[in-house]
Specification:
- Helices cover 59% and strands 9% of the residues.
- It is elongated.
- It is mainly alpha-helical and 170 residues long.
Length: 170
């Protein structure tokens, strides 16, 4: 595994920030019909892979084993202090690319809300980032041609839509 954690890894860590849990419970939250599944779906085997990644990164540690119902014992994981700090920082860091807004930003908002935490710092940071995106696109668009013009126009309207959503969200 590379040193970069995926959105699924971060999502699993975000659920563990709510309290210790085993992989099956986390997978239920990220199932299509689960509370987080509409935002980001993670298959059960991906949850266990994420738990392995997080443990190797020093973000989680196994706490105990619980007897499963008709199956193997379930390992309950908890965040380490390093993991808690990393999740706290990740949750308030704005999304850098517009294409990541649909999943990464919404997942961060959903995880913050599940814990009853204030989403305002993330919304404000994302608003500032989106304003920078709008300004960049507006300055480059008049001189753009061909595919660049097409992409910049799309990015500009997407960034404006993001700003409108963020303003309505407050």
């Amino acid at each position: 595994m590379s040193g970069v954690l995926s959105l699924s890894d971060h999502g699993v860590a975000g659920v563990l920030a709510e309290g210790p849990a085993h992989g099956f419970a986390i997978a239920q939250a990220f199932a299509r019909e689960g509370e987080l599944g509409l935002v980001w779906t993670i298959q059960r085997q991906q949850v266990y892979r994420a738990l392995d990644h997080l443990e190797r990164a020093g973000w989680t540690e196994p706490l105990r084993k619980e007897v499963g119902q008709g199956g193997p014992a379930r390992v309950v994981y908890a965040l380490t202090p390093r993991g808690e700090a990393a999740v706290a920082a990740w949750l308030v860091t704005p999304v850098e690319r517009l294409r990541d807004v649909r999943h990464a930003l919404l997942l961060k908002v959903a995880l913050l809300e599940r814990r009853g935490l204030d989403v305002a710092p993330l919304v404000e940071a994302q608003r500032q980032r989106a304003e920078g995106m709008v300004a960049s696109c507006e300055s480059r668009l008049p001189n753009a041609v061909g595919s660049e013009r097409l992409v910049l126009a799309w990015r500009l309207e997407s960034a404006r839509a993001l700003l409108a959503w963020l303003a309505a969200w407050r």
